[in-house]
User: Fold DMT family transporter from Bradyrhizobium brasilense.
Amino acid sequence: MPKSTAKTGGVTAPEKVPTSSTSAPGARGWRDYALLLALACCWSSTYPLTKIGLGSIPPVTFISARSLVAAAFLLIVLRIHGIRIPTDLKAWKLFAFQQTINSTIPFLVITWAQLYVPASNTVVLASTTPIFAFLITWAITRHEPASLLKLVGAILGLAGTVAIIGLDALSGFGKEIFAEIAILLATVSFACATIFGLRLSDYDPMVVAAGSLLFGGTVLLPVALIVDHPWTLHPTPQALVATVVMGIFSSAFGLMLFYMCLTRLGTLTTNAQGYLRIPIGVALSVILLGESVPSNLALGLVLVMAGVAAMTVPGEAVKRWLRRL
Assistant:
């Protein structure tokens, strides 16, 4: 698989890219987990920023705009660092497929489903991604160890999410069954994307993020022009700021960190950030939107952190700890 290139003087040289062998599970350091936390912070901001943006910008236009803003930002950074985007068809097929299953289709599906499903139920359903990733890894791909401890962690994280959102949210399930099934299918797509994304480990994470976002934004742009007529819209200044901030922070940096985490930590551990996003997203909603603090936040945090720990701690470390007891 071809790698991105960097200019050195007048000569074009291959850009060195970390591969999965550079950070074996037993050699994970605090920097790897710091990347995971940073990813959770980037993607947790999508909850309040999307709510602000969609107040005056339709969904398709909003998603296309934030993707193009993110792609433009990353292309400028790549240009400054002298890193070239691949031009071969094979690379762009990979970027296109990854963006389609990781963003374009699931985001559109979830956006449609939210017309019928309350936000609290959507968060709970979307938090099943780590469980689907575990099942796909265990039953089909087997590209990394799918231990019982990681499954327990995924279940604990989901339980913590339910506790934070509120048990009363569960009473609404089943009323809009087709929309709820659509959200679950979108989370399966997210899970598949974390597994397929490993095929892109030969490319610089910034290159993958830029190529994927450019494809996604360009594909949705004609749809936005036809459906939303963006030139007739009157977005608020807050919505425009939310679009730009979400494009740079959530999409550009978020996707770049996502591919770095996949390379360093693997599929199942990277999915653990999905649970970290819940308490961070709640905190941002309280600060930015003035929403109330959930009554079960403390219990939810304990369950979420226990689940994340179970999904991220290497099996060898657990065995060593058990031997000392």
About this structure: Residues 39-315 form one domain. The first strand starts at residue 5 and ends at 8.
